[in-house]
């Protein structure tokens, strides 16, 4: 029987410091330290994020090892997020991973954060079967919106992406206009539950290919709110649920239309979602209603940033002998 492989995953691309231990593709621990500090600024402050990562990284790794009941000498490889993300944040996780790899004399594996989101589907959770290759993955997060054609674990290409804001940004910026805390995506999801999706209509982007645009929608939302507020200062509080539901409906519809078009263009019926916005309940419900597709939805806890997804990507790279090295530098705009 093959030997089990123990991977330490480290994720620090934005404002979550996370470490995970995987035995093959089974999660033994997945520790996430969120950074509350950004809430009062209405968005992630890069300098504060990297300082918080520095404070959190050692305790988070200790905790991941403790919960997994794994000694550091048992680790077979260290996988870390090389990019994309905030440079100062990436450097903290990357530097720690390199130092640890050198000290333990264990291989280093660099992981693309977006590939990590996609490969989170292959974390073993005994609940459902992972997507079958080839599949299309709608990867929607705070910094990215992509349609990725996934032919194999490590063979994937971007076939459509946003030309301006990401879907998560569209949620967060709309939430900010509504006076909601950062990150606003989960709050819009929550307040939408009892709202009317057709209460307000917003501009729809007119982009013909598989690319996305959300900036027109954002302007349209801001214009409507400012206009109505000038007539009634309580407009937002009196219409919060309907506003949230209508905004969410508009964003999700843009995503659904493009993924359906991507399926039509490629003939691929296996559709997965990944990234923070894939936690959105309306997106999940609407996708599951598309009967003619095989839809794959990740477990809720692996949608937003976490190190288990980096470790599972590291596991497949390890099996494929795609090891990194100390000379690789973190990259804010890393493609794959
Ligand atoms: O993947 P992620 O944790 O971090 C990045 O790589 O960006 O995604 C964070 C994004 C934020 O914009 C957040 O508002 C959004 O995911 N998000 C949601 C929900 N949960 C997280 N957006 C809509 N509905 C949700 N339930
Ligand atoms: Zn992410």
How would you describe the overall organization of this protein?
By secondary structure, the protein is an alpha/beta fold. The protein has two domains: 6-122 and 303-319, ATPase, nucleotide binding domain (Nucleotidyltransferase, domain 5), CATH 3.30.420; 135-297, ATPase, nucleotide binding domain (Nucleotidyltransferase, domain 5), CATH 3.30.420.40. The protein has nine helices and ten strands. A five-stranded mixed beta sheet has the order 3-2-1-4-5, with helices on both faces. A five-stranded mixed beta sheet has the order 8-7-6-9-10, sandwiched between helices. α1 (46-68) packs parallel to α2 (87-104), α4 runs antiparallel to α7 and α6 runs antiparallel to α7 (235-266). The protein is globular and about 65 Å long. The two termini are 33 Å apart. The model has no long low-confidence stretch (mean pLDDT 96). Bound molecules: 5'-O-[(R)-(carboxyoxy)(hydroxy)phosphoryl]adenosine and zinc ion (ZN). 5'-O-[(R)-(carboxyoxy)(hydroxy)phosphoryl]adenosine (KG4) binds at residues 14, 141-143, 168, 171-172, 183-186, 189, 275-277, 279-280, 304-305.
């Amino acid at each position: 029987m093959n030997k089990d492989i123990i991977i330490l995953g480290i994720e620090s691309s934005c404002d979550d410091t996370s470490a995970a231990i995987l035995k093959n593709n089974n999660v033994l621990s997945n520790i996430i330290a969120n950074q509350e500090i950004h809430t009062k600024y209405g968005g992630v402050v890069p300098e504060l994020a990297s300082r918080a990562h520095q404070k959190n990284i050692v305790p988070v790794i200790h905790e991941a090892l403790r919960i997994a009941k794994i000694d550091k000498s048992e680790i077979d490889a260290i996988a870390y997020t090389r990019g994309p993300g905030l440079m100062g944040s990436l450097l903290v996780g990357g530097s720690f991973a390199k130092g640890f790899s050198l000290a333990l004399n264990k291989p280093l594996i660099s992981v693309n954060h977006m590939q990590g989101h996609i490969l989170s589907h292959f974390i073993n959770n005994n609940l459902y079967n992972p997507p079958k290759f080839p599949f299309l993955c709608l990867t929607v997060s705070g910094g990215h919106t992509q349609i990725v054609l996934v032919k194999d674990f490590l063979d994937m290409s971007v076939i459509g992406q946003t030309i301006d804001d990401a879907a998560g940004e569209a949620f967060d910026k709309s939430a900010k206009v509504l006076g909601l805390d950062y990150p606003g995506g989960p709050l819009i999801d929550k307040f939408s539950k009892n709202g009317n999706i057709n209460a307000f209509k917003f501009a729809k982007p007119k982009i013909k290919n598989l690319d996305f645009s959300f900036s027109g929608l954002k302007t349209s939302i801001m214009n409507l709110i400012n206009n109505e507020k000038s007539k009634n200062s309580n407009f937002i509080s009196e219409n919060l649920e309907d506003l949230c539901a209508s905004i969410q409906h508009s964003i999700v519809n843009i995503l659904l239309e493009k993924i359906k078009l991507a399926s039509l263009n490629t003939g691929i019926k296996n559709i997965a979602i990944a990234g923070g916005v894939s936690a959105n309940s309306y997106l999940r419900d609407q996708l599951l209603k598309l009967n003619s597709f095989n839809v794959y939805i990740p477990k809720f806890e692996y949608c937003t940033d976490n190190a288990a997804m980096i470790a599972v990507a590291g596991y497949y790279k390890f099996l494929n002998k795609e090891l990194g090295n100390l000379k690789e530098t973190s990259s804010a705009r890393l493609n794959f």
